[in-house]
Amino acid sequence: MTDWKKIRSDFPITKNMTYFHSAAMSPSPTPVLNAILKEYRKLHTQGDTHWTKDIKKFRKLCSELAGMIHTKGDDVTFVQNTSSVMSLLAMTFKNHIRKPFNIVSMEDEFPASTIGYEYQGLDMRYVQPVEARYPIDNILKLSDRNTLAVVTSHVQYATGFRQDLKTLGEELKKRGILFIVNATQSFPFFPINVRSMNIEVLSASVHKWGFTGHIGTLFYTSSLFRKKYPSPWAGWMSVAPEEGSLIHTAKNTPFRLHETAERYIIGTYNLQPLLAFQTAMDYLKTIGFQNIRTRVMELTDYLIRGLEKLEIKITSPVARKKERSAIVTFTLEDKNKQCIKTLAKNKIFVGARGEGIRVSVNIFNNFEDIDCLLNVLKSL
Ligand SMILES: Cc1ncc(COP(=O)(O)O)c(C=O)c1O
């Protein structure tokens, strides 16, 4: 039996407020804060003397994360954010594809998934939602012979709709269409298997559900993708040094990039908190991801029942469990703004997203938190 009370006590935020805003950013539990402090203390007292060891630790972390999405360590690294990933892909496609092509994405995507492509002037086509869902048939209908890629979130940020990546990936593979997934609102809570889902590129900004703040984005590319599409950017850390040297310093001499995903790390990055992310992953693994999913479903079931009792309109598609996530959105129509203000006065924090009020539940929330929210809604 999981001691949820103990887990809650690792999150001091629960003493200050009722926090339903993890889909914006999860607070860090005490063990993660301690790991961040430890890394900075190391820097404080020993400077850069741990660089080589730290890079090894970072590679080990990447390998572990790669295992979680069923690929190898070589395919996974970190970049600054999902927007960088999508911009990088947009530049890649613009540079290397000569014939006309289009990219299909979803109308409700968080703009990090789409701005980069639009900025490069690529032909973007958007699938319209049907009651906040994206039926796979509709995605395929919008795709044609010129569709290069489908870009979709695993979980939609505003509604929590969770896409069936396996079925979509199988269909795209049959049609030779690249599958690009933004897993920011699902990783690491919901399982991803890049192989069986035929995902070529995946991006997951871990400040949402990674409990370590803004440390960057997990970035996966298949080895085939890297072979086919040269990186549009490079820096000293992308270059495979010549044998016996630490880095490539010669000028106007040929060099080649790492064959691994490390080619996308162009220079130094925020290593200290990234190393603490290992502690966050260990913390979640100890609880168990299946266990976490069950808890999230129990809490959201309770919330959905409560909202239904109050006859509040739920805008998330919640009829099918396999399409649900940690996000539930509802609306009080023209009273949404007032509702968010009243909730904040009662120290209850939710998000205003799309047309609705977004509640995201996390491992530190309990049923009493949901009662607090429902009681305020009742009073409104
Ligand atoms: C689905 C989704 N993708 C990406 C982001 C963040 O994008 P970036 O990592 O570029 O800041 C968010 C929220 O901020 C999001 O909800």
Structure description:
This protein is an alpha/beta fold and 380 residues long. It folds into two domains: 4-20 and 288-379, Alpha-Beta Complex (Aspartate Aminotransferase, domain 1); 37-283, Type I PLP-dependent aspartate aminotransferase-like (Major domain) (Aspartate Aminotransferase, domain 2), CATH 3.40.640. The chain has 13 helices and 13 strands. It has helices at 4-9, 13-16, 30-46, 51-68, 82-96, 115-119, 136-142, 165-174, 223-228, 271-287, 289-309, 336-345, 367-379; strands at 18-19, 76-79, 102-106, 123-127, 147-153, 178-182, 201-205, 217-221, 313-314, 327-331, 348-349, 351-353, 356-360. The strands form three sheets. A seven-stranded mixed sheet has the order 2-8-7-6-5-3-4. The chain has a four-stranded antiparallel sheet with strand order 9-10-13-12, with helices on one face. Strands 1-11 form a two-stranded parallel ribbon. The structure holds pyridoxal-5'-phosphate. Pyridoxal-5'-phosphate binds next to helix 5.
Short description:
By secondary structure, the protein is an alpha/beta fold. 39% of the residues lie in helices and 14% in strands.
- Our measurement of the CA-to-CA distance between the termini, rounded to an integer number of angstroms, reads 37 Å
Order of helices and strands: HHEHHEHEHEHEHEEEHHHEEHEEEH
| Unreliable sequence segments | none
Q: Which CATH architecture of the largest domain?
A: 3-Layer(aba) Sandwich
Q: For this structure, what is the CATH homologous superfamily of the largest domain?
A: Type I PLP-dependent aspartate aminotransferase-like (Major domain)
State the strand order across the main sheet. Answer: 2-8-7-6-5-3-4
- The whole-angstrom Rg is 22 Å
Q: Within the CATH hierarchy, at the fold level, what is the topology of the largest domain?
A: Aspartate Aminotransferase, domain 2
What gross morphology would you assign? Answer: globular
Number of strands: 13
Main sheet overview: 7 strands, mixed
Given the helix and strand composition, which structural class is it? alpha/beta
Average pLDDT over all residues: 97
Tally of domains: 2
Bound molecules: pyridoxal-5'-phosphate
Beta-strand residue fraction: 5-15%
Highest CATH level, the class of the largest domain: Alpha Beta
Count helical runs.
13
Q: How much helicity do the residues have? A: 25-40%
